[in-house]
Write a structure and sequence with these properties.
By secondary structure, this protein is an alpha/beta fold. Helix content is 67%, strand content 9%. The structure holds adenosine-5'-triphosphate. InterPro entries: AAA+_ATPase, ABC1_TM_dom, ABC1_TM_sf, ABC_transporter-like_ATP-bd, ABC_transporter-like_CS, P-loop_NTPase, Type_1_exporter.
């Protein structure tokens, strides 16, 4: 989407409100130039004592009062109808951005820091709201005021109008120079705000580490540097603004001096009346006001343009074609209960030097349970992220019921495959809501059942508020093992055809692990399961265990055959047996 299409698209969203606002702004500006005309005629009647003149004078006063009331009404309407669209656009844009962010693949989120995204959603969207609200209102105010007022002035005295316009032209020249400089600075300022937000997000996520390692001074220094760059940029903008505003003010006063000086001369020459000079002075104020607003409009316009650029970097990011084509519910049901076939899977990270996975092949028929064992850095998580299509795998390597998963939309694929990761993410909500995760239609008894299965129910019974306990930000109130069990409960609540568990039981003891796995495998006997673990005790019951070393499968078989065929497996088993004995 180009910038002009973006502007038009969101303008059209409120087209009727804007059209009515333009009509109201036009009426307000027309009344603004009309009212001085009645004042002028009233003043010119001051010297005349006749009854007819008195009647005429009262008539003009009534007109002025009446028109002023009408003007106030239209001014209120113009503000309502011009400012509200700014809010509506902001809300619509937020929805569009959230929709897009939700559909964009992981590769986008890896390259685009969350701090930067938050800054765009807060600061840039604020800039866009002002652009579509106050910016629109002031723009039309200025257009109408600068076009109508000189015409009404010209009708009184063309010569005085031409002289009065000289200071305005001078002010415009100064304004244009400052305007160009400010545009670049506004862009820089929003980038600096994004940098600061990114930096803060980074440090706040690692606040425990910063405190533990006493890194406070270093962090404060880093933040101060980014903050200083933001301040320097903001000060430059303020400096230009504080220079331009007095210049515009000076132009306005110069115009008044010219009107009074030259107007007085024309009065003496009897070319102008006192009423006409008074009207002319009123018009000079009407010209000065939009002139004063030019600075504000320029800021709103420049911030709006820069903000639109930032937002477009997200809106123009492409969602992979296959992710756009969603299956119908019927097609998705037909895809269920399939066989996962992995053939000669290889994977290299885009920024990596060499392949992390080599020639991985295995099959997961419906209901089969497969375990993956491997040392640290063997490529287990990479394999999981290839299988659930978080990573962009090459076509032809992973099939589900004969269908290449790279031809399926990720959203559809994840309806079939549920992954429980080793770092569960919890929302700042109650335990029950964290299990439900939006599945509000499911009965409470189902939630209780999955909590029982994941061996979390006993812990919950000890909490004062039970499953209504608030878990705090990222589940800060829960221990590592409790978080893991909650995320297992969450994965079990809604149906899926394949469950992948990536080291999810690392933070629970052996006994709890055995209980969880026993209950879990009973409940999901019809579902395919892939469990990744460092612990053989978690894999013992699997139909097949793949031993991964440096990204390749070096041994495979069930627990008993591997004890005989794989020295690594046997050594790991013996070591872990000793650990278990030491613990019990
Ligand atoms: N995003 C990435 N970019 C580049 N290389 C990566 C990335 N993530 C992981 N790697 C590399 O891939 C290799 C395998 O990592 P992976 O996380 O898959 O191992 P793992 O077996 O899951 O390890 P662990 O048991 O410690 O979780 C490692 O050498 C790691 O450095």
């Amino acid at each position: 989407m180009t910038k002009s299409r973006f502007i038009l698209h969101y303008l059209l969203l409120n087209k009727y409100a804007y059209l009515f606002a333009i009509f109201c702004i036009l009426i307000v500006n027309w009344l603004q130039v009309e009212i001085p005309r009645y004042i002028q005629q009233a003043i010119d009647l001051f010297g005349d004592q006749s009854e007819a003149s008195r009647q005429e004078l009262f008539g003009y006063v009534e007109w002025v009062v009446g028109l002023s009331v009408v003007m106030v009404v239209f001014r209120i309407l113009s503000r309502m109808y011009a400012l509200n669209p700014g809010r509506i656009t902001e809300a619509a844009l937020k929805n569009d951005l959230f929709y897009k962010l939700n559909r964009l693949p992981n590769s986008f989120h890896k390259g685009f820091g969350s701090g930067k995204l938050i800054s765009i959603i807060n600061n840039d969207l604020n800039g866009i709201r002002l652009f579509y609200g106050i910016g629109f209102l002031q723009l039309f105010n200025v257009i109408f005021a600068l076009s109508l007022t000189p015409i009404w002035m010209w009708r009184i005295s063309p010569a005085l109008t031409l002289y009065s316009i000289i200071p305005i032209l001078l002010a415009f020249v100064v304004f244009r120079i400052g305007f160009r400089k400010m545009r670049a600075l506004h862009g820089e300022r929003l980038t600096r705000l994004q940098d600061l937000s990114e930096q803060l997000m980074n440090y706040l996520s690692g606040i425990d580490l910063i405190k533990n390692q006493q890194m406070d001074t270093w962090v404060l220094n880093e933040i101060e540097q980014v903050n200083q760059r933001l301040l320097t940029c903001t000060m430059q903008i303020t400096r230009i603004q504080t220079f331009i505003m007095p210049v515009l003010d000076y132009a306005n006063n110069l115009m008044k001096v010219l009107i009074l000086g030259l107007g007085g001369y024309f009065l003496l020459q009897q070319n102008l009346t006192l009423g006409e000079i008074t009207a002319f002075l009123s018009y000079s104020v009407l010209l000065a006001l939009p002139l004063m607003h030019l600075g504000r409009i320029a800021t709103v316009y420049q911030m709006g343009m820069v903000s639109i650029d930032s937002v477009l970097t997200i809106l123009n990011s492409t969602i992979p074609e296959q992710d756009m084509a969603l299956q119908t519910p019927a097609d998705l049901t037909a895809l269920g209960q399939g066989t996962l076939t992995v053939s000669h899977l290889a994977y290299q990270y885009p920024d990596g030097d060499s392949a992390v996975l080599h020639d991985i092949s295995f099959e997961l028929t419906p209901g089969k349970k497969v375990g993956i064992l491997g040392s640290i850095g063997a490529g287990k998580s990479t394999l999981v992220n290839c299988l659930n299509h978080h990573l962009d795998v090459a076509p032809g390597m992973i099939h589900w019921n004969g269908r290449d998963i790279t031809t399926l939309a990720r959203q559809d694929w994840r309806a079939l495959v549920r992954t429980i990761t080793q770092e569960p993410y919890l929302f700042s909500n109650t335990i029950e809501q964290n299990v439900r995760f939006g599945s509000t239609d499911l009965a409470k008894s189902e939630v209780d059942q999955v909590l029982q299965l994941s061996q979390f129910a006993e812990d919950i019974a000890r909490f004062q508020d039970g499953d209504q306990t608030l878990v705090g930000e990222k589940g800060i109130m829960l221990s590592g093992g409790q978080k893991q069990r909650l995320s297992i409960a969450r994965a079990l609540l809604s149906p899926s055809d394949l469950i992948i568990m990536d080291n999810v039981l690392s933070a629970v003891d052996y006994d709890t692990e055995r209980k969880i796995l026993g209950g879990l495998l009973d409940r999901i006997s019809h579902q395919s399961v892939l469990i990744v673990s460092h612990r053989i005790s978690a894999l013992e019951e699997m139909d097949e265990i793949l031993v991964l070393e440096a990204g390749a499968i070096v041994a495979r078989g069930d627990h008993h055959s591997l004890l005989r065929s794989s020295a690594y497996y046997k050594a790991t088993w013996d070591l872990q047996q000793n650990e278990t004995e030491a613990v019990t």
